[in-house]
Amino acid sequence: MVTSLVAQLQRLAVPDTEPRKRPFTRPSILFDPKEAADIELDTILNIALSGLEVLISIEARFNKYKNDLFSYGSRELDRDLMGIEENKRINASIYSYLQLLSGYFELSAALKTLEYLIRRYKIHIYNMEELILCALPYHDTHVFVRVVQLVDTGNSKWKFLEGVKTSGAPLPRKVIVQQSMRDLGILEVLCNYVTNSKKVQPSRPVTGFCTAVIFEFLGSLTTIDSEVVRRVLPFVEFGLQPGSRGGADQKSGALMIISLLADKVALSPKIVKSLIRSLAEVARADARDSTDLQWCRMSLMTLITLVQLQSVEIIPKKIVDILKDIREISQLLSELVDEFNTDKFLALFLDSLVEYSCYDDLCYGTLLSIVEMVPLKDFVVRIVSKLLNTSLRILKDNDSAGAGSRCNQILVSLLKKYLFESREAVNRCIEDIKLRSKNDYEIVIRMLNCNLDLSHEISNSKVWFAMEHPKAEVRRSALLGLDVRGMLNLEAADSQRFGTIQDAILRRLGDEDLTVVQAALNLEALPEIISAPLCMDAFRNVLQRCIKILSSGASRGASLVVDIALSCLQHAAAGLPDEGEHVKMVATLVFPFIIIIPKTQRLNLKALEMAKQMKWPFYENLVSVSPDKVIFMAGLMLWCSYYSCLPPSIPGRAFLDALNKV
C-alpha cells in the first residue's frame, strides 16, 4: 500500500494540462482494449454490480463493498485529483477487497467486479502489487496472464513477470520459487500477504499457494540462513495461533514448514522454545475443542519432531503445564511411540514430569498415566534414577513426606509393569547413592520404608521393595514378617494398596526360589488374601513344578518339594464343598500324587487320604483301598513296566479298577 501511495503522489505532482480526449483503447480484463474504449462507465458499473450480487450470494462479506467501492457515487471519483487521506481510505478498501476476492478469483463474477476497479480506480496502476498478489495463486491460468499484461512492473520485484506478458503463457510455480531464491523480497511479501490479513481471513487458495511456495523454497535450499528463517517465521507463527483465521489449511502449512525447518537448520534456542510452546498450545486447544484427536496428534507429532532434531536439553515447566492439560496425552504418546522415534522427547518429558511430580498433582497424575499406558521399558533406569535423586534433593531441602510417598507410588507403578528392570534399577541407584554418601543412602532407605511406625497400616512401598528384592532371603523375610490380619483390615480402608500387596504375594507363589514359595504358602489366611480362582491357578503351577522336580530323580531338596506340594494340596482342599467344579479341580490336582513311591510316601499317603474324602465319582472306589494295596500296586506297575509287561503309563481309571481287584 505504501508503494501504491507513492506512485499516486508522483502522478499528482505532475499537472494535467492536456485536454481530455476519448482514448482509442482502455485497459480491460473482460474485453478487447479497443472494444473496452467504447463501453461507458455506467455499463461497466452495472456489469460489476451483477457480478457483486453473485459474490454476495456466496460470501456475505462482499456486501459491505456495495455502497463503497461499487456505489453509484463512485462514478464521479478521479483518483488523480483526490487528496492523500482519501486515497489512503480507498487503498485500504481496495486492499481488503482484493484479499477477499482472491478466494473467488476464477469466477466470472469476480472478473466483472475487477473490470470496474480497473476502469474507475486504476488498480492496475495504483494497486499493482495488491492486484498481482490477488491473482498469483492462479498463476497457471490465462486469467493471470491477462492481469500481468495490464500492469507495468517497471523495475520492481515483479519484473520477472515480463516474460509472462511477452509469451502469453501461464507461469509455472517453480519459476516463482526460483525467483524467491534470487530475491527474498518475493518470499517475504508472500508470507506477509497471509499474516497481514487483519480483517480478512486468508482464503484457501491463497494459503495453499503460499504454503507450497515456501515449502518448495525451503526444500530447494542446501543451507537455510537466519534471514530466511526471519522471513518465514511470521507465516508459521500466524498458523499456530489458537483459532487462527487461516484455519486448518494455515495450521497444516505451519506444521509442515516447522518439520522441514527442524530437519534442515539449527534454529536458535529462543525460536525453538517459542515454537515448542506454540505447538503445545495448539495441541491443547485441538484436544479441548474437538472430539477428533487427529489435529492434536499432528501438532504433537510436530512438537516431538522439533525436540528430536533440535538442540533441546529440557522441557520447561510452562510447556509441561500445557501438555499435562491434554487429557489424552498418554493415549496419543502410546500410539506415536509405536510409529515414530520419540526417544529424546520422551526422555526429556519424563525428566520434567518426575521433577515436578513431587509437588504438582497434575504432573504426578500424568506421569502415572504415562507409566501405565506408554511402553517405557528402555526408560526405566532413567526414570528411577531421576526419581530417587529428585526426591532425595527435596527431602534434604525441606524434609517433605509427600515427596517420599509419591516417589514410592511411582516406583510401585513401574514395578507392576517392568518388574525385573525396575528392581535392578532401584538397587543399582541405591548402591550408587550409598557409594556417594552414607547420609543420602540412609535418607533414601527411610523414604522407601516410610510409614513403618504406623502399627495399623502396611507400607505398600516397604512390602513391594522387600518382596521384589534380588536376594531370596530378603523376599522370604518380607513374607514371614507380613502382618496378614492388618492386611485384611486394610482391604476395606484402602483397596488399591491391598490389591498391590495381593499382586506381590501372588508373584511370590511363582518365585524362582522354593523357600520363598514355601513362605508364601505358610501365610496365615492365604485363601482370604487371594481369591479362589487365582489361588487354584497358582497351586496348579506350583504342583506341576514339584512333579517335574520329583520325576527328575534329584534327591537334593526333595523334602522341601514334598512339603511345598503337601501345603498346596492342603490349601486347595481346605473348606472343600461336597460337589461342584471346585471339587473337580482339586481332585485333578491330587491325582498325580496318589501313587505311592518310597521317596514321596508321606505326600502320597496324604494325597490318597484326601482323595478318599472327596465326593467325586472318579475316587468312589478308593474308600475301601488300604495304603498297602496302593504301595503293592505301585510296585507291581514299576515291575511290570520294567519287564515290558505294561506300557510305561497306565490310565488312571484302569489303575483304580486294578486297585479294587487286588
Automatic annotation (TrEMBL):
Residues 228-353 form the U3 small nucleolar RNA-associated protein 10 N-terminal domain. It comes from the Eukaryota. GO terms for cellular component: 90S preribosome; small-subunit processome; t-UTP complex. It holds the Pfam family U3snoRNP10. Transmembrane segments: none annotated. GO terms for molecular function: snoRNA binding. InterPro entries: ARM-type_fold (IPR016024), U3snoRNP10_N (IPR022125), UTP10 (IPR040191). GO terms for biological process: maturation of SSU-rRNA from tricistronic rRNA transcript (SSU-rRNA, 5.8S rRNA, LSU-rRNA); positive regulation of transcription by RNA polymerase I. PANTHER family: BAP28, HEAT REPEAT-CONTAINING PROTEIN 1. This is U3 small nucleolar RNA-associated protein 10 N-terminal domain-containing protein. The lineage of its organism: Eukaryota, Viridiplantae, Streptophyta, Embryophyta, Tracheophyta.
